[in-house]
Amino acid sequence: MQQRITTTYHHQFQVSRPGLVAIVLEARCKSRHQLSSNFDEDLRVEINRLRFRELPPEKHIQLFNIPATCNGSTLKGLKQTIVFLTVLGEGRHVVSLIPRHGAFVEDVHVQELSGKQIVTFPIEKQAEEGDRRPWFTFVLIDLPLKIFSAEVTIERRLRDSDDLKILIDGIVKKNARGGKFLLWYLVGNFLHWLAKGSMGERKRFTVTFEESLDNGVHYIELYADRTPILHQAIFHLAYHETDAEQRAGNIIKTYQPLILSTAKEFHLDPVMVGAVIFQEQANNFNFIDALADYIGGLLHLNTSIGVGQVRVNTARELEKIYPSLDPGVEESWPGEETFVRVERLKDPLTNIRFAAAKLDFSRTRWMQAGFNIEGRPEVLGTLYNIEEVARPITPHAHPEANDFGKGVQENYDKVEALLGL
Q: Where does the source fall among the domains of life (predicted)?
């Protein structure tokens, strides 16, 4: 591409076969000092209108100063590569490159990965000469991570050697030797001199980290000091937990802050919000096979998505009722509106907000009809499970619970404990 941009640039591309894809961005941003300006250059990305933000989400939304962006204050004109891994349907998609005060885009390209759960990226790139800055960032979208590994070469050099820092979801992988290099996982100064003061050891390392990250948005960051070489990166996209109910409990604990804040937004019982999420995940006995189908592009476009297992059609109908959920796709948008909905539902916070809205939709309708089901989790859970927003069930005096609703009631106390309430 090799182009400087100062306004939003929409990069459109076709996916020929549904499944896992990698979207690769290479860009540079300059600092205010390099520009003789009051402002640094920054660049952020949206995929089918999905915005990336800080983890975990805070009250004040951060869109630029996060791992999935390029920031001139840290790059100082050097190149950063960001790789987005996501599952896309067949058709036209849009990557929006959104600069703040400008950015230089070297390349943006898409690679279809053919349903692989162990993804190997051959890279063979050496960092440009520079001091402690973001180098490679990998963004996982609605995907789990069981193992991450990378092959890296570093070299001992006079005065300042090659170093590599690794962060996964903001947590630094610390060097076991500690000291001033605690936050740098690979340290060139720990290598030997081959010729004292003039030629240092050059060594290739394979670093591997076992993780237990469930579906969600995850950031894997590699920071470079001097000129290390990244040969390849490998991702094992699988679940650490294999028991559905145990996994459901882990999901509730992971997203506890989002469940509490969303329940407050919609004036709902937070345990009720957590209980329907728990039940959806605990009932998903085939989640391991479903992940393989999802990555392989075998699931229907209106399949249930994300933490709350929200359907695309349900989201579309709820957007008409709750303006705060509407993504506001303008007529000039070059992409497909359905893909916007699918991608947004992959974000855990957005997904939980849709789940809460569906609970509020049923509760409000029944209350307006004179039937208070606020304190009946089995009924509200049943409606969450079976009621279609476009064709709602007529409220009546004697609603019965289905198995899903009964499960919500049975697990209510358990979810309350998981939420720490």
A: Bacteria
